[in-house]
Amino acid sequence: MKALVTGATGFVGGHLVDRLLARGDTVTALVRSPAKAAELASRGVRLVRGDLGDHAALAEAAAAQEVVYHAAALTGAVDEAEFLAANRDGTANLVQAALAGGAPRFVLVSSMAAGGPASRGRPKGADGHDAPVTMYGRSKLASEQVLRGAALPWVILRPPTVYGPRDRDNLITVYKAARLGIAPVFGDGSMEVSIVHVEDLADAIVLAGTTGDAVLGQTYYANHPEVLSSADLVREIARSMGRGVTLLPIPEWAARMALTATGAWAAALRRKTILRADKANEFYQPAWTGDAAPFIAATGWQPRFDAASGLAHTHDWYRQAGWL
User: Fold this and answer.
1) What are the residues whose beta carbons fall under 8 Å from the beta carbon of 165, sequence distance 6 or more?
2) How far apart are CA 321 and CA 316, in angstroms?
3) Residue 117 carries which DSSP code?
4) pLDDT per position as a tens digit, 220-238
5) Distance between alpha carbon 63 and the CA centroid of its chain, in Å?
6) Residue 67 in contact with residue 94, Cβ under 8 Å?
7) Fewest CB atoms within 10 A around its CB: which of 205, 225, 231, 269?
């Protein structure tokens, strides 16, 4: 199968490329830096230099593809306009290129942030009751809306926090803190969370691109069905390293004050950051959980890593790679 991947040099996109190559697919990657993607080229990936604002590069990359996997996204920005320009408008540009290139299946890797928080004990479903609470979440929902209005066969996946080998941005900071025996937790640690190991997510993305037509036009949550509290997640990370951990609760007022300051500093310097005031809107919710049952039923996806095995697997990789 001929597949285009955006975000191929990133965390999720890189694992997705691994899966596609293992299947024997012919992979094209849209990359801003061919030098950064040299390892992909050495494995047979066709590189097209450009970004989501480069219409000529998008046309070249999307031509005659059978599946487009859109995994690229901006997660830190100067302001909401920058989020929308990258995530909404970039998706629109790629959709137009796909339409001109033969209307392949289009798989959008969105985010649980697009749907907004869940209620405690009730994982979120893709029922249209979306209420994002951050600029990032609103931009991802806007990208979904672009795709839903397009004359393409499409599937949208909403993963939660993604972790695993090669992750530099999500849980590695918790591993580093837990290694010292003390780790922060927002509020009282009772927030319910879903997580997904990156290798399981890569499998899910491939299934979204290859399963029969019944999945088309659908939005799915893609996470392990296990639900943890945020405190239990930190404890499990410590346990994966054979350590105990003391939790340091961070009250909401303190987090909001700190995030307001870092966001203002970044805005003044016009620097991208994920540490903005509205990030506290994510940290102090009753739950960030998703109902993956519809996707499992539609595709047969079976995530292999629960929290205990996945976090231990990730720790082993970090240790062997010298990241911890």
Assistant:
1) 198, 199, 313, 314, 317, 318, 321
2) 9
3) P
4) 999 999 999 999 999 999 9
5) 26
6) no
7) 269
